[in-house]
Amino acid sequence: MAQFFTVHPDNPQPRLIKQAAAIVREGGVIALPTDSSYAIACHLGDKRAQDRIRALRDVDDKHHFTLMCRDLSEIAVYARIDNQQFRLLKANTPGSYTFILEATREVPKRLQHPKRNTIGLRVPDHPITLALLAELDEPLLTMTLILPGDTMPMHEADTIRDQLEHQLDLILDAGACGVDPTTVIDLSHGEPQLMRAGRGDLAPFGLD
Questions:
Q1: DSSP per residue over 73-113, as a string?
Q2: What is the pTM of this model?
């Protein structure tokens, strides 16, 4: 049964963030608010937790996970970034975007797209998520929290608890967040390509 932490949306309590980080390190699967919608997340190195997320979302190995990072410098550890990509990322992070980029050797094969050797990465603009990433000192492995058969992400912690209490280890409640997923931009083949329209503005990428 999931634990349920009520966390201040702007000034998250350090004690609760430390407890959340411990649950992640111990193999927990958590639901957390972001600047777009709720996401489900686990430790980067935990294959069992990763498989639990796939099962919860009912997706196969062709569906990208997203590495949720603290900042651009952390993204650069896990993705190959040229000068043009760097400028785009610098101008649009943190924010409600997920970027598809070529993975570096730091990314385990099981986290990459099976045919393209790419990975999704993002820097969220949410105090709770950023505080948790800082406490962990490494990225989180995440997916948008959309249940099988639904078209919209989940955005209220109480609803998540009602439906997923026995499938998660922790729910971080900061009040309702957005109902739009991130905008997904593929930067792995030169010019930006829109993979999914979401909360992030398309104009900076010439896609509007």
A1: HHHHHHB---HHHHHHHHHH-SSSEEEEEEB-TTS-GGGS-
A2: 0.93
